[in-house]
Amino acid sequence: MTAFFKLSNILMGLMAAIVLTSHVSSSFAQTAMPPRTQGYWPLNHLAAPGVASQWAGQTGKACPGDLQTVQVTGPAGMLISFYDSMGRELKAASGVKVDVQVAAPYRMKISEIPGYPGVELYPTIELIDRLHPPAHLKHQFPVPLTITEEDIDAALADDLVTKVIYIDQPEIAGTASTTETLPAARNLLAEADMRGRPIMIFRMGRRQPDPRQPGTFFISGGPVMPIEVTPNANTPNTAIQIEQ
User: Fold this and answer.
1) Which H/E stretch holds residue 84?
2) Within 10 Å of residue 134's Cβ, how many Cβ atoms?
3) Where are the alpha helices (DSSP H) in 14-160?
4) Fewest beta carbons within 10 Å, which of 18, 91, 157, 226?
5) Strand 96-101 relative to strand 224-228: parallel, antiparallel, unpaired?
6) pTM here?
7) For the CA atoms of the chain, what is the radius of gyration?
8) Rounded to whole angstroms, how far apart are CA atoms 216 and 233?
9) 138-162: string of b/e by CB count within 10 Å (b at 16+)?
10) pLDDT tens-digit profile of 125-167?
11) 115 Cβ neighbours under 8 A, 6+ residues apart
């Protein structure tokens, strides 16, 4: 199942964020190549984490030194961890805003999920472009990422959940959130490129750290700088912390 989720945040008429979501079986993810949509598109959302962001940096589409604010939300009470280039863990409540480096993949962890005792999942994000709001509004308009119970259930069912967030074309930008279901075999990066400008890729499956090589699993491509934490009923606003 592929869902097309539209979340529009208009910033001075300049931008709207949109999410394309795909839930596919792990066997499909390992063997299938989404068909071309229109013309030639060299990448697809089933590529390994880091491939698209490396491509974006090498081709000049994204500047690796740039930072982009991202906000991650999920079920109330869920904890979200980011891992930086030193393998350090930054842990915070759902709703956290962080600055991460463009053109670099990042490992995350979600834990303490209400209704899922003991479950820990390790998704990845990678920024292949960034937003360009006025500098003083940078942190007010982050790239939004919502992890839903449906996403968690799909990952636990051995599906690979992939979301491609992109900026809508100004002439078709809307003001309301909508969801559209697409075939699982569609190339989400090509679909996003047709509709606007791809910004971020999120992937989540059941993969767990290898106890024999834990370091390589957690080390990400750049720094993680917390902006703020949105408090909720179960986790205080002071929950953000860095663990060595």
Assistant:
1) none
2) 11
3) 26-31, 51-58, 149-156
4) 157
5) antiparallel
6) 0.77
7) 17
8) 34
9) beebbbebbbeeebbebbeeebbbb
10) 999 888 888 888 888 889 989 999 999 999 999 988 888 888 8
11) 75, 149
